[in-house]
Amino acid sequence: MQSTTPIDDSAQRAAQTTPRILWLTEELFPPQIGGVELMVARLSAKLAEIGLEVGVITRQTHPPSPAEERIGSVRVRRLAPGGVLKGAGWRAVLPLLAFFARLTVVLIREARRYDVLIVSGMKTIPLVAVPLGKLLGKRCIVRVESTAELDEPGFTEIPHGKRRPLDWIANRLSARLQRAALIHADRVIALSEALEKRLLETGVPASRISQIANAVDLRVFRPAAADERDALRVELGLPPSAILMIYVGRLSRAKGIDLLVRMWPQISTRHPEVHLLIAGGGRDSHDDCEAELREHLRSGFPGSERITMLGPIDRVNVYLRASDLYILPSDFEGFSIAIIEALASGLPTLLTPVGSVPELIRDGENGFIFAARDGGALVAAVDTALAARARWPEIGRRARATVATMDLSAVAEQYRSLFDVLLERGSDGAQSSNSTPHSSESTPDSSGGSPHSSGDRRLSSPALAETPATHAYRAPLARKSDRKIVRR
Asked: Is residue 145 a contact partner of residue 334, using CB atoms and an 8 Å limit?
């Protein structure tokens, strides 16, 4: 009998086991700056770095960005129409339908070029991606970004007091469609335990929910020693001897920054040694209050001289290292990137109990919690934090420990494992049933504990604990030389 020589088919196996990912999102960094936009950019870049073929499709910006470009190893395409649709109510329906039509054409035309669709946000794109995925035989993952998407479903966010009958009709219809899309997605990602619970209440099967947290680069976002902090203040032109309290986020009413500035005269009178840094802008927010804040500062109210508006900044990690406290008085949050950056930087944080905060923060131990939209509670929280100044190093250490398991490499590997499971692939090309990230049906780890044992409530998976941190967030995604415009 004729002998045969084994053929080295490693390249073929690699091609068969490397998922091709198409990430769909309404907004992306650059140029938009926000938690969702930046996390999509960072995760897609990291997935490409570990060898996956990754593309991103997003909506066009206003003013227009390149219709197609390559950012690092990720191909990015932007589909019309552009502009801000949040807060537009029923007037957003026609532009969204035009976007859906273009997206549908692209997904059908390029069906042979991707294996998995992953969608950031549940409000719009899943209405197209989930049914098309079923039709084309593609796996579709929906990443729910916050409980607010479930609390107020609909096409758009509408400012309080401005809802019209047509808005109500459009939102009722879209809410039904959104729930159907979630229930029929191949997998729904919950960023926190609260989101997982809400998804179960919405009717999403437990077997289709995976809990995967957001990520932060612990090498970039880290505490500063006293001499480094002093040097950074000189470099940045910040008050050298003041207690610096920093706010990082959109300048929108939903973030509570308007309340913080209104209460500042009281805070400044009680604590004249405190100086407030406000980092961020309000552009593209439907509840933008930047102009109002600047006008209020120009009025010269008591303590206004101890507020510095920094505007949008890239070097968030540097400003955090130069600061003493972080504050975010939000009305609602999902899994805030800004919060975990502050925790990673070892700062005592002053936060409202919204989004993932109750799962991350133990009041008085690794941060401070106060009621949302309550000026008196905000002032009292500042009093409490300043009275605990001797404990700031200890609180900072605990804050950083809270996010010690949330690095980008580990999170990217969780996504990779999820892709393999959905495509019935293991790292060697065989079906894998043990590599899925934490889901509602997960069993405790081999030590007999649960992912949240030892008394803490960190959002993590046990597999993350031994993985080094390698994630960056608000520092620029790529140098201009790394951004190749393919077509306008």
From this structure: yes
Identify any residues that bridge with 307 across adjacent strands, giving them in sequence order.
Answer: 276
Mean pLDDT for the chain?
84
Distance CA 465, CA 473 (A): 20
Pairing, β 307-311 against β 243-248: unpaired
> Would you state the structure tokens that stand for residue 38, as one six-digit string?
């930046």
What are the respective helix, strand and coil percentages of the chain, to the nearest 5?
A: 40, 15, 45
Q: Other C-beta atoms within 10 Å of 338: how many?
A: 28
Which residues have C-beta within 8 Å of that of residue 430, sequence separation ≥ 6? none
Convert the pLDDT of each residue in 409-451 to its tens digit.
888 999 999 999 999 864 333 333 334 465 544 433 333 333 3
Which ranges of 113-155 does DSSP label H, i.e. alpha helix?
Answer: 126-136, 147-151
Give per-residue pLDDT as tens, 175-202: 888 999 999 999 999 999 989 999 999 9
- Residue 246 to residue 310: CA distance in whole angstroms: 10
Instruction: Say how far apart CA 361 and CA 171 lie, in whole Å.
Output: 34
Give 468's DSSP letter: P
Q: What is the pLDDT of residues 345-368, one digit of tens each?
A: 999 999 999 989 999 999 999 999
Q: How far apart are CA 251 and CA 287, in angstroms?
A: 8
On the question of a cis peptide bond just before residue 19, with omega within 30 degrees of 0, the verdict is no
Contact 475, 220 (CB under 8 A): yes
Count the residues in the chain.
Answer: 488
Q: How far is CA 441 from CA 109, 206, 413, in A?
A: 36, 7, 20
Distances (CA, A) of 200 to 190, 193, 290, 442: 10, 11, 38, 15
Alpha helices (H) in 299-348, listed in sequence order: 316-321, 337-344
Q: CA-to-CA distance for 26 and 91, rounded, in angstroms?
A: 17
In sequence order, which residues have a C-beta less than 8 Å from that of residue 77 and are 6 or more positions away? Answer: 55, 56, 57, 58, 67, 68, 106
d(CA 307, CA 313): 16
Residue 307 in contact with residue 8, Cβ under 8 Å?
no
345, 320 in Cβ contact below 8 A?
A: yes
Sheet strand arrangement including 68-71: 209-211, 187-190, 139-144, 116-120, 20-24, 53-59, 74-79, 68-71, 483-487
What is the identity of the amino acid at 481? S
- Tokens 């101890």 belong to 306
**Tokens matching residue 48:** 């490409």
State phi, psi for 199 to the nearest 5 degrees.
-65, -40
CA distance 434 to 456: 25
Q: Is residue 249 a contact partner of residue 285, using CB atoms and an 8 Å limit?
A: no
Type of residue found at 276: L
